[in-house]
Write a structure and sequence with these properties.
This protein has about 190 residues and is an alpha+beta fold. The protein has 2 domains: about 120 residues, Alpha-Beta Plaits; about 55 residues. The chain has 7 helices and 5 strands. About 25% of the residues are buried.
């Protein structure tokens, strides 16, 4: 006997995915085969889940979750990538898959509650990964700290060299008593 489809449970599940994800990307998959969709899911693994959704249920779930980014875009065969990992990596996976399979159309998305256009998702995909950006930031901070250490140490080392030069000049110069004797001796001649 077939189980009855519970629309309210489906709406609640999709709504929960919206709230637990830091980003979501709306796509149209018209013309893609099941094998290609499975390939896409595999490329997103670890960063996102890719779910084929019913438009009317998704519209209600999005409203329940407070997501307005997909208003007016839920038409045709629709699937959503719910991103729980690195949004940049997920956007790269979607962009690369769309390049290889032009039938996948990225319609728009939402990132941290803000709407994204398809062009903005492409720009997001062009960014370097979070780890690379953090490594660059750490390198820049390390270079700045090394420069600061040098700048703070420079006056101290210059003062030390000046003191050493004064000591050397003092030991090379005749003592005041000898200088007075030399003047006195020179003055007698």
């Amino acid at each position: 006997m077939a189980r009855k489809y519970d629309k309210n449970a489906a709406i609640a599940e999709i709504s929960e995915k919206f709230t637990s994800s830091q980003a979501a990307v709306l796509t149209e998959y018209r013309g893609l085969t099941v094998k290609q969709i499975s390939e896409l899911r595999g490329s997103l693994r670890g960063n996102a889940t890719y779910a084929v959704v019913k438009n009317t249920l998704t519209e209600r779930a999005a409203k329940d979750a407070g997501v307005t980014a997909f208003d007016g875009q839920l038409s045709g065969p629709t699937a959503i990538a719910f991103i729980t990992g690195d949004p940049v990596e997920a956007a790269k996976s979607l962009r690369d898959f769309a390049k290889a399979h032009p039938l996948l159309v990225i319609k728009g998305g939402v990132l941290d509650g803000k709407s994204l256009t398809a062009a903005e998702i492409t720009k997001l995909a062009d960014l370097e990964s979070r780890e690379v950006l953090l490594a660059k930031l750490a390198g820049a901070m390390n270079a700045s700290l090394a420069k600061a250490v040098y700048l703070f140490a420079a006056p101290l080392s210059q003062a030390a060299r000046t003191i050493d030069a004064l000591k050397a000049a003092k030991t090379d110069a005749p003592a005041p008593a000898e200088a007075a004797a030399d003047v006195a001796a020179g003055g007698d001649e």
